[in-house]
């Protein structure tokens, strides 16, 4: 089956991103296809490149980057939510005249249409939030 | 069409679990995850509500029970699943409603 | 492009958190995809639709007028849960009067809000293919 996943909360603050990550891994292991992972609301903060959590705990952003790389996942960060919260890729930062960008590898910034499309194209869409 | 409902809040913190019960039709499944797993324990009024919702299947995410040290307090009649089981439940039901 | 039944579930009050505003943004963008869209307002979500919101003193943007535009986006199945209104001492009169124009009936103005019981809304929810929660 084709699964899409929506993540509404940022890393560490809520368990949403962790649960979504474990669910995604299990879905892949079971042979399902992951059409898209869409980060909305504070979920965009999972895409930061700059997190330095304690060494003895999981690095949520890095986990997503690694999982996406291993499995060729499409991880989309909503542009409207990202702009509000200061999550920038290099192009967007340049367009906005900002002096830095902070998005991690494997994430791409795009519009809300990507979420709707994910709903249309997938067999199941599961939302993780708080 | 059958729905899989997920609840991730403690029934003592919020009324989400109650609302979910109001929406879970016969033949549907309610999966308790994250802080929602507290509803799957024994010794309180919530356990009665689960018993009374006879047409609904209840499941609980094992890893979340373990994390919270609740494995010995699991109420009867609630299926424990892991993330693989969570994925299966999603596939087996027509649609998912995550109560947030 | 296939047409699916999409439901947006709103259970949170406006302004205290961002969910009401950002879920409305999804609905507006989603309207361009010509899907079979329903909105459900349950619990504190019913507060999103109240009349007379004035946000000047809290310094936030008042986005409630946007609900009135939903009809123009062909989003006209807006379910409000009766029990949630009653629990909160509200009636339909406390909510905005949301309408849409039915082009099949000479653009006759019709109510978008459908006041339904929890049981009725549960039936509607059970028919949905994609349910988005915020």
Q: Can you offer a commentary on this structure?
A:
- The complex is a heterotrimer of chains A (130), B (100) and C (134).
- By secondary structure, chain A is of the alpha/beta class.
- Helix content of chain A is 37%, strand content 20%.
- Chain A has 5 helices and 5 strands.
- Chain A has helices at 16-29, 60-71, 79-85, 90-95, 113-121, and strands at 2-7, 33-39, 75-78, 107-110, 124-128.
- In chain A, β1, α1 (16-29) and β2 (33-39) form a beta-alpha-beta unit.
- The radius of gyration of chain A is 14 Å and the shape is globular.
- By secondary structure, chain B is α/β, with parallel strands linked by helices.
- Chain B contains 4 helices and 5 strands; from the N terminus they run βαβαβαβαβ.
- Chain B has a 5-stranded parallel beta sheet, sandwiched between helices.
- Chain C is α/β, with parallel strands linked by helices and 134 residues long.
- Chain C has helices at 19-30, 65-69, 82-87, 118-125, and strands at residues 5-10, 36-41, 78-81, 99-102, 108-111, 113-116, 130-133.
- Chain C has 4 helices and 7 strands.
- At the A-B interface, α1 and β5 of A face α4 and β5 of B.
Q: Per CATH, which architecture of chain A? A: 3-Layer(aba) Sandwich
Question: Strand content of the residues of chain B, in percent?
Answer: 15-25%
CATH level-four homologous superfamily name of chain A: DsrEFH-like
Mean pLDDT metric of chain A? 98
The largest sheet of chain A is: 5 strands, parallel
Give helix and strand order of chain A, one letter per element, not per position. EHEHEHHEHE
Amino-to-carboxy terminus distance of chain B? 22 Å
Written as H for each helix and E for each strand, in order along the chain, the element string of chain B is: EHEHEHEHE
Estimate percent helicity of chain B.
25-40%
Rounded radius of gyration of chain A (Å):
14 Å
- The CATH superfamily of chain B is identified as DsrEFH-like
How many domains of chain B?
Answer: 1
Most extensive interface, chain pair and sizes = A-B, 21 and 17 residues
Rough outline of chain A: globular
> Total helix count of chain B?
4
CATH class of chain A: Alpha Beta
